[in-house]
Amino acid sequence: DCPNRQEILGTLKQVQKLLSAHEASCLQSLRNLRKKINSLQSTAGKQIAKPVNSTCPKLDAPINGRKLGKSHSIGHEVHFLCDHGYEIVGSESRVCQESLTWTGQHPTCRDFSECSSSPCLNGGTCVDKVNKFLCVCAKGWAGETCQSPVPTFFITRTNTSAGSASAASTLPAATAGLHVRPSRCTIVQGTTHCTCEQGYTISGRDSYSCTDIDECEVFHNGPAGKLCLHKCINTAGGYRCSCPAGYNVTNGRSCKDTEQAKRDKYIKMGQKRQKMKHFERNIDECATRQNNCTKDQMCVNTYGGFQCVQVDCPKIPHATYVKTSPTRCERNPCPLDNRACSQTPNFFSYHYLAVVSNLSAPRVMFRILAQRKLGDMLRFTLLGGGQVRRHFTVQRSDHQTGQLMLVSPVQGPITLEAEVEMSELEKRVQLGRYLTKITMFVSQYEF
Questions:
Q1: SS3 per-residue string spanning 347-399
Q2: CB of 420 within 8 A of CB of 435?
Q3: Distance of alpha carbon 166 from alpha carbon 159, whole angstroms
Q4: Any idea where the EGF-like domain is (predicted)?
Q5: Closest CA to 420 of 405, 441, 399, 442
Q6: Nearest to 404, CA basis, from 364, 357, 362, 434
Q7: CA torsion 281→285→290→296, rounded to 10°?
Q8: How far apart are CA 236 and CA 57, in angstroms?
Q9: Which residues 6+ apart lie within 8 Å of 429 measured at CB?
Q10: Which residue(s) pair with 305 in the sheet?
Q11: DSSP-derived pairing of the beta strands 414-426 and 429-442
Q12: pLDDT in tens, 263-289
């Protein structure tokens, strides 16, 4: 019953690994303790008598925003967030200094300007709305962006060269074409009157020529709805409606399916039911090995498919990282005199989420919890900009937990990467930084 030599060696190796891990943990704890002692010694050497019960002036939350943090004592920090549809201008965080003044500038919440890209054409005026804009068009133009000329069927001009002629005369006809027709003009007592036949309008370049009206464009979103149920085709002096293959035009604008269209519709309905059954069964290509990910990659199941991802530890100057788990890279110990190394992140953590399109907002997408508390303050910050800040923000749910919030729906398919930094501070001195990268695969499906 005695263990053989190989079993004894295996047991000794396991014990050796446990002792090595315990030794590394003890060394890291000693280094952290040494940092705290050095910080305390440095603070004690520079200690100055401070006023008792001294606080900085009260800070108000910006209009259309909120303030996080109630303490106004020296060394404490407050954070500011803007409501959905607004962006912050100024300092996101402010710290109460020993001089009883706040760092940074007081922030304001500015509405996203939808008119910054000058969407209104042909002299139109843009009016900024919440998450949309409105174009006030100049005279003679219409449409969502003032892109379409308002139809003009006649024009009246004073002809000074005609004098006071009492008889009516007809002007020469312009060159005719498929989409250009001559206007009918007469001169009566020095005034020129030009008209166009139905479906044409006076040209802006030539008052005596009539150009075809593109009814499909001008009346695309009229009071009675679109001209055609499916597709509108402009013709000379008019328009016609068309339908997809297998459908016939009825009532001049509607579409009625034929027998073939009915069969196609039933096939599509069956495909849709099959797709719904796919999600109901929750097919996991990663668990069933129905994927082509390599050994170095990690398979992430998504709605309607999968993604192959590979986690590589970052390469940062003055520091080296080693992978301690499939989704985590930790920094190797820094020399005591290497300040640049100690300022780099302690670890990187990678997480992947499968998300359907157009999720309702606001909602919590991810939580970050500090396992232990070394300093007197934790700070959570959303890094990056652009689409990430348009759709996400970071809030604190309690003293040791931060959460990534979805503030506006995301239309898929798209991949978004949000990076959240958690910092540990002791009297405004940074003790550690921890970066969490959340990658979201937003599918084209929505429920």
A1: EEEEEEEEECCCCCCCEEEEEEECCCCCCCEEEEEEECCCHHHHHEEEEEEEC
A2: yes
A3: 13
A4: 111-147
A5: 405
A6: 364
A7: -170
A8: 73
A9: 39
A10: 302
A11: antiparallel
A12: 666 666 665 565 555 555 556 778 877
Q: Are 347 and 331 in contact (CB under 8 A)?
A: yes
Scan for tokens 């068009």, then name that residue. 137
Provide the 8-state DSSP code for 319: B
Question: What is the C-alpha separation between 256 and 24, in angstroms, rounded?
Answer: 75
> Rounded to an integer, what is the distance from CA 21 to the centroid of its chain?
42
Assign 224 a pLDDT band (cuts: 50, 70, 90): very low
Q: Which amino acid is at 179?
A: H
What span, in angstroms and rounded, lies between the C-alpha atoms of 109 and 201? 48
The contacts of residue 216 (CB under 8 Å, 6+ apart) are 227, 228, 232, 233, 234, 239
CB 334 within 8 A of CB 343: no
**From CA 5, how far away is CA 343, in angstroms rounded?**
48
Structure tokens at 289: 């090995």
Tokens of 58: 């009260």
Half-sphere exposure of 34 (CA within 13 A, CB side): 11
Q: Which of 225, 191, 188, 206 is closest to 152 using CA atoms?
A: 206
pLDDT band at 169 (very low <50, low <70, confident <90, very high): very low
Q: Is the pTM of this model over 0.70?
A: no
Strand partners, 127: 134
What would the pLDDT profile of 242-268 be if each residue is shown by its tens digit?
A: 888 767 787 777 777 666 556 666 666
Q: Is the dihedral of CA 252, 254, 256, 262 positive or negative?
A: positive
Pair 96, 119: CB distance under 8 Å: no
Pick from 30-34, 104-108, 387-391, 436-440 the range whose average pLDDT is largest: 436-440
Q: How far apart (Å, rounded) are the C-alpha atoms in residues 81 and 83?
A: 7
